[in-house]
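Bug report (template v2)

What were you trying to do?
Predict the complex of my protein with glutamine.

What happened?
Run completed; filing so the output is reviewed.

Input:
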Amino acid sequence: MSKASLFVAALLFAVCAPLAAAEVVVGTNAEFPPFEFTDDNNNPIGYDMDIIQAVADAAGFSVRIQNQAFDTLVEGLESGKLDAAISGMTITEARKQKIDFSQPYYNAAQVIVVQEEGEGYETIEQLKGKIVGVQLGTTGAGMVETVLGEDNPNLKQFRKYNEVFSDLKLGRIDAIVVDLPVAQAYMRRLSGLRISSPRMSEEEYGIAVRKGNAELLQKINDGLTAIRANGEYDRITDKWFQEN
Ligand code: GLN
C-alpha cells in the first residue's frame, strides 16, 4: 500500500469507527400499542419509537431497533446482544438488580379488562378462581401471580397481546391485566370490551441499558432532558395521546 492510500485508510477508519460505535441496538416488543406496534410493512412505530429516535437525535447517536419477545429484553441486555431497551418497561426494584434505567418518561397503571357483557372485576383479589390472561414477564403478570399463585393453570401467560385480547373476545379467559393505555388502544381496535377496575398501580416507564453502562445511560438521560426542554417530548406525547 502506498503512503497516500495508507493515509486515506487511516483517515477513513478515524472518521467511520466512532460513527459505527455510535450505533445503539435497542430492543423492543412491538406488540404494545400505542408505545410500539408494527405498520403495514412490519416496521415498529409508536410513542416509544418516536421518543428513542428523538433522544438519539438530541444526544448524537443512531438507533437500530430489534423487535423481540418482551420477556427476552432483560436477558438481551445482560448478554450484551442489546445496548438498550424501550418497550413500555416499568422501572421495578427486581429489574434494577439486573439492568439500569433512565429517568422515567411515562406514567402508566395496571387495569383489568373484561367483556362488555361479562362480570366486572374491580380488584386483583376478585380475580381469584378466574381465568386471567397476561403477557409473560410483565408487572401485570406479577400482580396476578400474587393472588392466583405462580403455577396456577388459570393464569394464562401469553407472548403476544394480540392473542390475549382475542382470547378474551372469544370468552376463553375471564379477564386481562394490562397497562391502561394499551387496554385503551386494543379497545379501539376490538369492540365489546371494557375496563372494569380503577388504576391498580402507579408505574413509571424507563429506558433500560446494560447494568453499569453509565456512558450510554448519561446520553439517554441528557437526551430526555433535552427533548423535554425543546418541546419535542410534548409534541410526541400529543401525537400519540391527544385523545386523553
Ligand atoms: N409495563 C409492563 C411491564 O413493564 C408491561 C410492558 C410490556 O408488556 N411491554 O412489565
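What did the reviewer find?
The chain has nine helices and 14 strands. Residues 29, 32, 70, 87-90, 135, 138-139, 179, 203 surround glutamine (CB under 6 Å).
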